[in-house]
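User: Hello! I'm new to structural biology and keep hearing that structure can be predicted from sequence alone. Could you demonstrate with DUF8188 domain-containing protein? Please show me the input and the output so I can see what each looks like.

Assistant: Of course. The first part below is the input, the amino acid sequence of DUF8188 domain-containing protein. The second part is the output, the predicted structure written as tokens.
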Amino acid sequence: MKLLKYAGFFPWVLIGSLIGSAFVVPMVSNLIDKFYYKEKYNKNTAMFYKQYKDNSYIIKVSMPNAESKLYLHNVDREKYPLYERFDTTNDSRNYFNNPSADYTSFYCKEYKKYMNIIAFKDVNGSYGEKELYLTVNRDDMNNPEYGTKDNPVPVLKAVGVSEPIWFSGKDTDSVFMDNFYRNNVINYLKYKMPKEEFERRFKKGK
């Protein structure tokens, strides 16, 4: 009877909250990471970098001025954002450690296709009214499903023809740009390319 008498004074709610915070919430978060985020993105993309690179080539284009409606973000910034972050865990504290990409989507008059310059590293520069060498993939360029507003051709390397794009001038450093391109391709294949397409293009028959 004495136990029942004093049970009402025991901080059951506090104990339950502590148990939930210490065990239940982390367990649920770990399960989400294991069964959702682990399978969310493509795996082992580094081993397919060379295959993607070897099937790519360089084109020369003239970019529109910064205010042009040929840039999709100038038409509808909500639908065509300049930036995307890829969640890799259920832990919100890891938000700023998640990989991210900057986008510059535009209509290319020379090739009559929409293209998207993708950078998984902050370029900190300007494309407006510059002549650029763009590295594009042959399969993407030849695929009629690419080149539309909703599915632009991915461009994973862009350098200036006669002047730098990067304010720091880093795009004139060939060693730096080779590393930048490799990292860009690996991250694009992992986080951005749809899983079904990745399986079809790189793992079919393996």
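User: So the tokens describe the shape?

Assistant: Right, they're a compact way of writing down the 3D structure. Reading them back into a model, for example: DSSP finds seven helices and six strands in the chain.
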